[in-house]
Write a structure and sequence with these properties.
This protein is mainly α and 275 residues long. It has 13 helices and no strands. It is globular, with a radius of gyration of 23 Å. It starts with a helix and ends with a helix.
């Protein structure tokens, strides 16, 4: 068998695997779509195509639950987490990339530990601390809790970008009178635009899909995100068609953000990995 034939077989095998994996991944979403267009009494009779085409479910859900309020809270958590993550991770990553100080290795190790530590392990201490400082059932309290376990990856990602930018560029700017902060904002950040975009998008996804912290740190309806609000619809007589409608509507903004930032995500992840 020639080398060219082997390459074609490998490429064909990869394509078949990608198609099969895509179909396997999309099956739950398609099943949710079919259920969302089905009346409650007909749920389970068909999983291949909608038997009712009942689009009224997409109208009724806005009056069934406070979906608009859930969207508002979710946007606040996602955008707040993203902006603060990008801001703090930028300065932390720049310090790790450019400065030498005692405890740098230990600090990097602590950052890594916060990344792999499950949220459920620290959920009770987080609840007690935020309740003690009167941040329970507040937007900022939930955002702080999310940041505590999601900031490690943005820091490490941006550090890899900053490490790949020659220090000579900043030294040349410093000779011309540019300050350290000026070098960061005028040289380093523009060259790290893909990393910044990737950090913002990934942080947005993290804040958008949060469930545990909003569940234990909020009780007011206006502080409830989509994940918690939709989950609370589940009871003994769960309206599964409404749950599926809410789930599909909840993932639409995240899909839009992904499609808009897809080019930067791929570029940022690959560049960060190479550097």
């Amino acid at each position: 068998m020639s080398r060219k034939t082997k390459r074609k077989l490998i490429l064909t095998g990869r394509m078949i695997f990608a198609i099969c994996w895509s179909v396997f991944t999309l099956i739950p979403i398609y099943t949710a779509f079919v259920t969302s267009l089905t009346k409650y009494e007909n749920i389970g009779k068909s999983f291949l195509w909608p038997t009712d085409g009942y689009f009224q479910n997409y109208i009724d859900i806005w009056t069934r639950i406070d979906l608009l309020g859930y969207f508002k809270a979710t946007i606040i958590y996602a955008v707040g987490t993203s902006l603060i993550n990008v801001l703090l991770a930028t300065f932390a990553a720049y310090a790790l990339s450019r400065y030498r100080f005692k405890g740098k290795v230990f600090y990097s190790f602590i950052i890594f530990i916060t990344q792999v530590l499950p949220q459920v392990v620290i959920s009770i201490p987080v609840f007690m601390i935020l309740n003690k400082i009167h941040l329970y059932d507040t937007y900022i309290g939930v955002i702080i809790a999310i940041l505590a376990t999601s900031m490690a990856f943005p820091i490490l990602l941006l550090q890899s970008f900053f490490d790949g930018i020659p220090v000579a560029l900043e030294e040349a700017a410093a000779i011309d009178g540019c300050s350290r902060v000026g070098c960061l904002f005028r040289i380093v950040l523009p060259l790290s635009a893909p990393g910044i975009a990737t950090t913002f998008a990934l942080s947005f996804f993290t804040g958008w899909g949060q469930y545990l912290y909003p569940l234990i740190l909020t009780r007011s309806a206006d502080k409830t995100p989509l994940t918690v609000g939709i989950a609370r619809m589940i009871d003994n007589q769960t309206p599964w068609e409404m749950v599926m409608v809410g789930t599909l509507l909840a993932i639409i903004p995240a899909i839009i953000i992904y499609l808009c930032a897809q080019r930067y995500l791929v570029q940022g992840m690959t560049a960060g990995a190479v550097k």
